[in-house]
Each structure stands twice: as structure tokens, then as C-alpha cells.
Design a protein that fits this description.
Blueprint: H1 14-25, H2 34-38, H3 42-58, H4 63-77, H5 80-93, H6 97-105, H7 114-129, H8 134-144, H9 146-168
Length: about 180
């Protein structure tokens, strides 16, 4: 059960309404997930949703790689709602379903594309060790390019915020959905 009561747009402050309307008018088109929490604090919501719109829809990474980075981050945090929302998007974008399942279970996925391996190694190393080795950093820069590595770091950071928000507020899955992580 969510720790957040349902939002009532009729009771929004002018600041909440401004953020709500920006989300509706933006690429998401609806208020879901952590944005429901953040709307309780429109100052955070305004900036977080704008960063999220960039990370999800405007970064230099193709959806295949950004969704892979999102899944690695969500799995690290065992964020059930995050996984529910993004694992299907990663598969739809071209990530092998077996790799997605391996990430979910903590196994090591097998990738045939060098850019996917670079994203996996970089993101996994960063979230688990809180650092990236020189070798991993150099390989990511070679495979992805400098701007894409910066965007990867941004995606990991943003989706860590998303994941901890979802976990702290126990954002529920739709009723018929099974939790991907037992936490």
C-alpha cells in the first residue's frame, strides 16, 4: 500500500498546478510514479520532472541504452514499480529479455553488442562500488562517447532518486502485477 494519499488536482496550490500541467503537456503526458510524491513539494517536483524528461526522452543515448541503464539502477535499488515500468520498455527497445531477467535476479547478463556491455559494466560498477575504474571509464568513453557517458551518469543519478522515492513511499504495482523483487 502506498504511503501517499491520492492526489486531488482540485486542491492543488498554484505551484502544484503549474508542475502538474507541465507534466501533462510534456512527453510523459500523465502524472505517474514518483511525480505523484514530488507534487507534494512543487519546488522539487518542478526540477525533478524536468531532469527526468531530459533523462528519459532527451538524452544522447538511444532508448535501448537508456532503458538498460534505468533497469540496472532499478534492480540495484530493488524498486518494484521502477522495474515494472521500465523492464518492458527496455525489451521493446531491443534489449534481450534474457539479459533483463539476469539483471533482475542479480546474475551476469550476456550481451552481444559492445555498447550494451559498456553501459552494463559502467552502470553496475558505479552503483555497486560507488566508483568507476579507469579501465571501465575508458571503455565506456570509447564505445559511447563523452556526452553519452555524462548522460549515463545523469540517468543513473536521476533513476536512483526515482527508485528511492518509489521505495520510501511504497508505490504499489497495479493490482494484478507480481512484485519483481521480494523486499
Amino acid at each position: 500500500m502506498s504511503r501517499l494519499p491520492d492526489l486531488d488536482p482540485a486542491k492543488f496550490s498554484p505551484e502544484q498546478k503549474k508542475v502538474h500541467d507541465a507534466v501533462i503537456a510534456g512527453p510523459r503526458g500523465r502524472v505517474v510514479g514518483p511525480i505523484k510524491v514530488w507534487l507534494k513539494n512543487p519546488g522539487l517536483a518542478e526540477h525533478a520532472q524536468a531532469l527526468g524528461a531530459y533523462c528519459r526522452f532527451g538524452s544522447s543515448l538511444p532508448p535501448r541504452l537508456s532503458e538498460l541503464a534505468i533497469c540496472i539502477t532499478g534492480a540495484f535499488w530493488k524498486a518494484n514499480y521502477e522495474w515494472f515500468a521500465h523492464a518492458p520498455l527496455a525489451i521493446k527497445a531491443g534489449i534481450d529479455p534474457a539479459a533483463i531477467e539476469a539483471i533482475r535476479t542479480g546474475a551476469t547478463p550476456k550481451f552481444t553488442k559492445a555498447d550494451e556491455q559498456a553501459i552494463y559494466d559502467f552502470a553496475r560498477e558505479l552503483v555497486t562500488t560507488r566508483r568507476v575504474s579507469d579501465a571501465t571509464f575508458a571503455r565506456a568513453n570509447k564505445e559511447l562517447g563523452e556526452t553519452a557517458v555524462i548522460d549515463t551518469v545523469g540517468i543513473i543519478g536521476y533513476y536512483s532518486l526515482v527508485s528511492v522515492t518509489l521505495n520510501a513511499y511504497e508505490m504499489p504495482l497495479p493490482e494484478a502485477e507480481k512484485k519483481p523483487f521480494d523486499v
